[in-house]
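[job 0412] stage=complex_fold ligand=NAP status=START
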Amino acid sequence: MTGASSGIGRTVVRHLVHDGWLVAATARRVDRLADLVTELDQDGSISAATIASVGSGVVTGCSAGSVLAVPMDVTSPEEVSNAFDVCAQHWGRAPDLVVSNAGVSTPGLIADITAADVASDILTNLLGPALVAQRALSAWQNGGCGRLDLIFVSSDAAPHPRPFQAAYSAAKQGTEQLAAVLAMEYDHP
Ligand SMILES: NC(=O)c1ccc[n+]([C@@H]2O[C@H](COP(=O)([O-])OP(=O)(O)OC[C@H]3O[C@@H](n4cnc5c(N)ncnc54)[C@H](OP(=O)(O)O)[C@@H]3O)[C@@H](O)[C@H]2O)c1
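[job 0412] stage=complex_fold status=DONE, emitting structure tokens
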């Protein structure tokens, strides 16, 4: 799960863990991920939270293996690759469900927003899901067991673009096209 440190991603992680999934909760804010692990630990969803060092990042996980908090910036190919490596080391297998949920929106008139604002929305909402999908497919092709599902969290701003969200609307529309092309390339029914 990308974007697991707040909002929709954090809530979905709670539900998945409660339902017995082994979940890698990823985001940039490791302290928020650690809070989530502690919360799940305290409500009895997991047992014995532990903290370990993997590479240059801090990984917070649990001995029961139902949730693993992994620092990952979706705009960094190195961090995305490292996160998948950490999951493989921890669970010894490729993921069978990957949710690209991390997103940002930098509101403003197109005349007023900066190049950095546009880049932030495009990199996080479009490049990020593309990098995560590439790495997930690579893991699946090199050791996945059966089916791989990729879920992309889009927005109503994709089919219905609105003022003050030009870069966000464009990026989310791009993500929907990315998902459509992946479905064609991998022969989704
Ligand atoms: N809330 C809505 O009404 C709504 C409506 C339509 C679509 N959506 C979409 O739903 C998704 C979740 O939205 P939300 O409302 O839950 O937002 P949110 O509370 O702001 O959470 C965004 C998440 O994305 C992560 N994130 C941002 N940039 C990142 C990066 N470069 N690398 C890794 N993680 C990054 C953040 O974690 P860190 O900052 O810790 O990295 C955070 O966990 C987004 O894709 C959003 O576009 C939301």
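The pocket of NAP is lined by residues 2-9, 27-29, 32, 72-75, 101-104, 124, 153, 155 (CB under 6 Å).
[job 0412] exit 0
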